[in-house]
Amino acid sequence: MTLAAPDGTPEPTTTLATAPSTTDIPAATPAGGSAGGFGESRRTAWGLTGLLVALYVVNYADKAVLGIIAQPLADEIGLSSAQIGLVGSLFFLTFTIGGFFAGLLNRWLTLKWALILIALCWGVAMLPLVAVASFGVLIVSRLLLGLAEGPSSALLHTAAYSWHPPARRGVPSALLAGAASIAKIAIAPVLAVVTVSLGWRAALICLSVAGVVWCVVWLGTWREGPYTKGGVKKASDDTGATEVAEEPTVPWRRIVTSRTFVFGALLVMSVYALVTVVLTWLPSYFEVGLGYSRVQAGSMFALPSIVGLILMLVSTSVGDRMLAAGSSSRKVRVIVPAAGVLFCGAMLALLPSIGTPIVAVMVVSVGYGFAAIVFPLLNSAISEICPPRQMAGTLGAFLAVMAIGGLIAPYATGLIVDAASSKAAGYATAFQILGLVAAVTAVLALIFVDPDRDKRAIRTTVYADA
């Protein structure tokens, strides 16, 4: 799988400005929109990319639905907050494990059938709970769902990249990354209405049906694009420069023990813990803790994602301009997101003292939004410290460590809510703790994370050993 840099900028390589053979690269795209020598329309490329984004939206809706149905499900089968939190944490356990199967699926099956398989598995995994509502079935259902969803990100990106050359993969990557926000902004309110009107089982059935409908459309439209091993040779890029040299491989120990990797991972782990608690608990907090109706709580579930999406777009676009103007990577990709996380920590620390529900909603939403900018910016910082050929492995390890936050936080939140004097106080305390932990890791990142320094140190060591 080819992995583009998280900010959409292709990793630079040592190149020689020689004219490539016309057999190595596609012809220039004509004015009519054809994808050059492959005769494929760019409209086709973007249409199929949109179909992949649609599946990713279903993917994130499957994750978010537990938070939406948590209270009616708990009322029916008698679940405690700790049990709901445990289910949320177990989902992320198998989700992390499932991610390691992406490469195997890509080798065993074509992208067309691999994505059909996992999409059908998502739908099937939710149906046992519709038939038999119990705590044990809920655990098994979410474990299977996590395992099936684990490989999805890598496979979806691989499919999208097959239709876009390396220099033009930033926008497709951004669209896929935005699927989480689209799911919470557009789909979560619909699921909330369905849950209130028809019951929580109907919400699960709707998601299963959505997956099947997607598979039908996919079967009739998908074909793999030209920019993969079945298409063009990869000796040349879109500019006509031919790659003639590669950096030597860096020992993995040097990368994963660098201060940028270690303390950057701690920072994103703490923010990811907040993300998973929002996915699992936010509708319950709005409904049970703050007194909003079930439909209102489901609708307001989108607010943190709206703020986060806006701030991510602003921070990355401004950051790109700052880098072009000569700012350091540390200033743009470390200091800015760490400051955002510190602001989030300060906001959430005040939550237990806020008695007005709408103010509490805004505090959580704005705090979450400022913390969310850490993901694109820190991923970009981590991508700098390793050679391009090791970027996929480095980011894979970085994101695997990040997921540890999801294994711990939802269950811990359930325990805190159960032990609190009231559910409102329990939720507020849990968010406060998450904010304070994130603030501490932000301070550590400000002190220790410097991608430029660690990139130089790693390269110097490698070349000195050579």
Number of strands: 2
Helix segment tally: 20
SSE order, as H and E?
EHHHHHHHHHEHHHHHHHHHHH
CATH topology of the largest domain: Growth Hormone, Chain: A
Rg estimate, integer Å:
23 Å
CATH superfamily of the largest domain: MFS general substrate transporter like domains
| CATH architecture descriptor text of the largest domain | Up-down Bundle
Oligomeric assembly: single chain
Summed over residues and divided by their number, the pLDDT gives a mean of 77
Number of domains: 2
| Largest beta sheet: strand ordering | 1-2
Q: Alpha-carbon distance between the termini? A: 28 Å
Gross geometry = globular
The biggest beta sheet is recorded as: 2 strands, antiparallel
CATH class of the largest domain reads Mainly Alpha
Helix content: over 70%
Task: Find the structural class using helix and strand composition.
Answer: mainly alpha
Low-confidence stretches: 1-39, 229-245
β-sheet strand percentage: under 5%
